[in-house]
Every structure is written in C-alpha cells, then in structure tokens.
Amino acid sequence: MTDLPLLLTTLSVWIIPLLLAITMHEAAHGWVAWKLGDDTAKMQGRVTFNPTAHIDPFGTVLLPLILLMTKTPFLFGYAKPVPVNFSRLNNPKTDMVWVALAGPGANVLLALLGGLLLNLYIVVPDMMADWYRDNLINLVRINAILAVFNMLPIPPLDGGRVAVGLLPRNLAMPLARIEPYGMWILLGLIFLLPMITASLGLNFNLLFAIIRPPAEFIASLAQALIFI
C-alpha cells in the first residue's frame, strides 16, 4: 500500500526546486530582453516569479515525471518559451546572445545559492531539516543540469541561440534552420538513443556523458560554498 505522505514529500523535494529553476530561467530571459529593448515578455506577464505563468504541460509536468519514474540519470524539464521579438532589441544579433545566456546564468546562480542556503541546515527545526536539505541538494543538481543542458548548441535551446549569434552568417544560418526540428532531436537523444544503445547491450547514455562533467563542476562550486 502506498504511503501517501511519504510519496508527497518525495515528490515535493523534486517538484519545488524544478519549478523554481524553470521559473527563474524563463523570468531571466524576459527581464534581460526587457532591459535590452523588447518588452514583449513583460507585456505578456512573463517577467514574473509566478510559476503558473511559465508552466508547459508536457515540459514542466509530464516529462519530469516520466524521467523520475524511469530513474534516468538526470532530471530536467522546460517551460513555455518566453516570447522575444529580436528585431526590437537594441542590437539584435549581440543582444540575442545576452538574452539566451540569461536563463542558464540564472540557473548557475540558483545552484550557488542552494549551496549557500545549505549552511542554514543546522538551524532548521529537526522535523523540517531533512526536507529542507533534500530540496536544496536537488536545487543544486537540477539547476546545474538545466544550465548545461540549455547550453547545448541545438536550437531552440539557449546554446543554439548563442551559437547562432556568435557564428559567422554562413555557419549561423544553417544552424538556425535546425530549430523546427530541435525538440525532436533532443527527444531522440533523451529517449531513443539510450534505447538503441541498450538494445545493443551497451550501458551508455551519450547525452548524460556530455552533460555530466560540466554539471558536476557547477555542483562542485556550490559545494565549495558549504561551510558546515
């Protein structure tokens, strides 16, 4: 028989940090775009810390639950993309890069903040201490993974937009044309490729192998801020 309180507690220590990570990520995109000349996200209520403004039914709810239940090596999700009218930015090509970097940058800062807040673990009441610690540990993990995942150079991920903004036109345009197929490429890397390698008797996850080292580096920076 399922222990409902235990199940809800377990889900909460993943859902709360995931919602916080996604909300800060998207709000950061919208805020930087607003400050650089495009108020589209601001006018649509997307420069907010209210997670309901950013939730995507599949990316924020269903995909993380699937990954959690299938016990994949990492947990992540995504929100509704923040609308940005790049033509309204002060310097569209350069500012697009800053708007794209804002989301992963927010995730790195949240991971570091999680490390700092873990220092307060010793003053949290005993009945809440483990829940508090697990939330922050997962906050560090999820934000480290989201920051690295989103910097993969595949449009529409932030790393793809950064690459398009930095590459010369003859390389940027072919990469930009991948965007309509980018999500299918990512779903293939997340689900299909591991299934294929497993069917061949190989215990290898290419996406995890790419994401893990830099994510662990970010997590190690957060860990260095823990003094207790």
UniProtKB/TrEMBL annotation:
CDD domains: S2P-M50_like_1
Main location class: membrane
Single GO MF descriptor: metal ion binding
Record's keyword terms, sorted: Cell membrane, Hydrolase, Membrane, Metal-binding, Metalloprotease, Protease, Transmembrane, Transmembrane helix, Zinc
Annotated GO CC locations: plasma membrane
Protein name per UniProt: Site-2 protease family protein
Membrane-traversing stretches: 12-34, 55-76, 96-124, 136-154, 181-202
The protein's required cofactors: Zn(2+)
One GO process term, biological-process aspect: proteolysis
Similarity annotation: Belongs to the peptidase M50B family.
Compartment(s) where it occurs, according to its Swiss-Prot or TrEMBL record: Cell membrane
Domain annotation Peptidase M50: ranges: 139-181
Membrane topology qualifier: Multi-pass membrane protein
Key word Zinc present: yes
